[in-house]
Structures are given as structure tokens and as C-alpha cells.
């Protein structure tokens, strides 16, 4: 159950309905996700969220497939069940196989695990000097 009310399309004012139209025509694939219906309680916040998503996911230099992988990894790491379903489906629509998704999960599992070990042992500063030198020379 959501903690704030949804602004359904039938109850939305003209400004919100125009924003809903942008969502449905773009990333919403014909519908308005409930998270955005809640954001519509403040049309300024809804508009900012849509604009922010567009700037991040539609603009920029990164390949769309890489952006989708990053979105999937993020929602997976924060255990966002809604996002996991959405971004897994989007990856599959981009031609990503089940085996590739499982491989990516293995990468996430390894690096979250080894990072826990590194942090737990206080090894954050134990970086190879060659790596540090490279980073200094290539800021």
C-alpha cells in the first residue's frame, strides 16, 4: 500500500495530464507507473522527475544498453522489486539472455561480497601504486 495517494488520470489537472502523456509516450510504455502517480501530488516534482529521467536515460554519451544495465544493477542492489521486474524485461527486450543476466548477478554478488571483506578488514587504502599513479596521470 502506498503511503501517499495516487493521482489517477481522471482526477488529474491539465498540467499533470500533459506530464502523464509524456510518460505514456515514452518510458511508461502506454501507462503511468504508480510511482509517478504519487509524484503528481506535486506537479513540479513530477515534472522534475520526468526531466531528470530523460536527461539521464535518453541524453548523454553512454550507450542505452549500458544505461539499462546500470539501472538494473542499481535496482537489484537496493532490492527494488518493481525496478528489478521492469529493468529485467527491458534488458530482455534489448536481446540480453538469461545466461547474461545470471552472469551479471554473479558479478554483483562477487563485488558486493569482496567489498564487504575489504571494508571489514580496513583495506580501503590498499590500492596498487601503479593504479594510483595511472589515476594521477589521467584525472
Number of domains: 2
Query: Which stretches are poorly predicted, pLDDT < 50 over at least 5 residues?
Result: none
- Helix share bin: 55-70%
Rg measurement, Å: 20 Å
Q: Quick one: how many beta strands? A: 0
Give the CA-based shape: elongated
Classify the beta-strand content into a percent band.
under 5%
Number of helices: 7
Salient structural properties:
67% helix, 139 residues, mainly alpha, AhpD-like, elongated
Helix-strand blueprint:
Layout: H1 14-25, H2 34-39, H3 43-58, H4 64-77, H5 81-93, H6 98-120, H7 129-137
Helix pairs in contact: 1-3, 4-5
Please summarize what this structure is.
The chain is mostly helical and 139 residues long. The protein has two domains: 1-60, Up-down Bundle (AhpD-like); 63-139, no CATH class. Helix content is 67%, strand content 0%.
Describe the protein.
The mean pLDDT is 95. This protein folds into 2 domains: 60 residues, AhpD-like (Up-down Bundle), CATH 1.20.1290; 77 residues, no CATH class. The protein contains 7 helices and no strands. It is mainly alpha-helical and 139 residues long. Helix 1 runs parallel beside helix 3.
Amino acid at each position: 500500500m502506498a503511503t501517499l495517494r495516487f493521482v489517477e488520470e481522471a482526477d488529474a489537472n491539465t498540467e499533470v495530464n500533459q506530464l502523464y502523456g509524456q510518460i505514456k509516450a515514452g518510458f511508461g510504455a502506454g501507462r503511468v507507473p504508480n510511482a509517478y502517480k504519487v509524484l503528481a501530488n506535486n506537479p513540479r516534482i513530477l515534472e522534475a522527475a520526468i526531466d531528470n529521467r530523460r536527461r539521464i536515460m535518453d541524453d548523454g554519451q553512454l550507450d542505452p544498453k549500458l544505461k539499462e544495465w546500470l539501472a538494473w544493477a542499481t535496482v537489484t542492489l537496493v532490492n527494488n522489486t518493481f525496478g528489478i521486474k521492469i529493468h529485467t524485461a527491458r534488458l530482455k527486450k534489448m536481446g540480453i539472455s538469461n545466461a547474461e543476466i545470471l552472469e551479471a548477478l554473479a558479478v554483483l554478488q562477487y563485488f558486493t561480497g569482496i567489498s564487504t571483506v575489504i571494508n571489514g578488514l580496513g583495506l580501503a587504502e590498499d590500492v596498487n601504486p601503479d593504479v594510483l599513479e595511472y589515476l594521477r596521470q589521467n584525472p
